[in-house]
Design goal:
This protein has 220 residues and is an alpha+beta fold. The chain has a single domain (2-175), classed as Alpha-Beta Complex (Nucleoside Triphosphate Pyrophosphohydrolase). It is 30% helix and 20% strand. The protein has helices at 47-59, 125-130, 137-151, 153-156, 161-175, 187-190, 212-219, and strands at residues 2-10, 13-20, 32-33, 69-78, 94-104, 121-124. Strands 1, 2, 3, 4, 5 and 6 form a 6-stranded mixed sheet that branches. β1 and β2 (13-20) form a beta hairpin. The radius of gyration is 19 Å and the shape is globular.
């Protein structure tokens, strides 16, 4: 089971993208949830690929591997197949793995699953810390972790193996361009890595370059 935190900053406040679960026949009815769901075991889908696929299916947002950061993973015994319901080992029928990922919000979401989710909205994380009971359990239990990891994201993302080689290449280029100071160097803007075509679908979206004014107008 995967959970994705798409985050941005508006007026120096950290906000994350969530939608309300509106299907009364499914778990956690009316709770706030982010993109993410079940890995497809029949296709041997791993959780990294799962979160990329689910984000596109639920919001038509394409994630970049070099910006996707896993901040939490836990396996627990459960009596239900697709729900982490901790129990004793002797009572368990399944082992459920839960994972939480971070990725910057870089394009507006689309409301692709109106039968299960309400519209996507941005919520200030400081408000969610006060009203955690409105969140699905995995978010409710880890909201402090999410808050801290978002604040440390810019440094933690540099430690990903996928970025290490490119970071070294950029540093070498910087040494050859002495007029470019460290203050003008932004790794996340400068790096350009190709994502394997089989991992994400191609999408052309005229709204992919959206200003902060859009987010204020739509979500605040």
């Amino acid at each position: 089971m995967t959970q994705l935190i798409l985050f941005t900053e508006i007026e120096n406040k950290i906000c994350i993208l969530l939608a309300q679960r509106i299907n009364p026949n499914k778990d956690f009815y009316l709770k706030l949830d982010g993109p993410g769901e079940k890995a497809i075991h029949e296709k041997n889908e791993n959780i990294d690929v799962c979160v990329i696929r689910e984000c596109f299916e639920e919001a038509e947002i394409v994630l970049r591997n070099e910006k996707l950061l896993k901040i939490f993973e836990e396996a627990c015994y459960s009596t239900k197949e697709w729900r982490a319901e901790p129990c004793l080992q002797k009572e368990a029928k399944y082992i459920v793995t839960l994972a939480i990922y971070l990725h910057p919000l870089e394009e507006p979401p689309k409301h692709t699953e109106p039968h299960t989710l309400g519209p996507w909205n941005l919520y200030k994380i400081k408000d969610l810390l006060k009203h955690r009971n409105e969140l699905v359990p995995i978010l409710k239990e880890n909201i402090e972790l999410i808050d801290g990891k978002i604040k440390a994201y810019k440094q933690d993302i540099l430690d990903l193996p996928i970025n290490a080689q490119k970071l070294e290449e950029i540093k070498i280029k910087m040494e050859k361009q002495p007029q470019r100071t460290q203050e003008t160097f932004n790794f996340l803007n400068d790096i350009e890595l190709e994502i394997p075509e089989e991992e994400i679908p191609e999408i052309v979206d005229e709204l992919s370059h959206t200003s902060i004014k859009f987010w204020k107008a739509i979500f605040l």
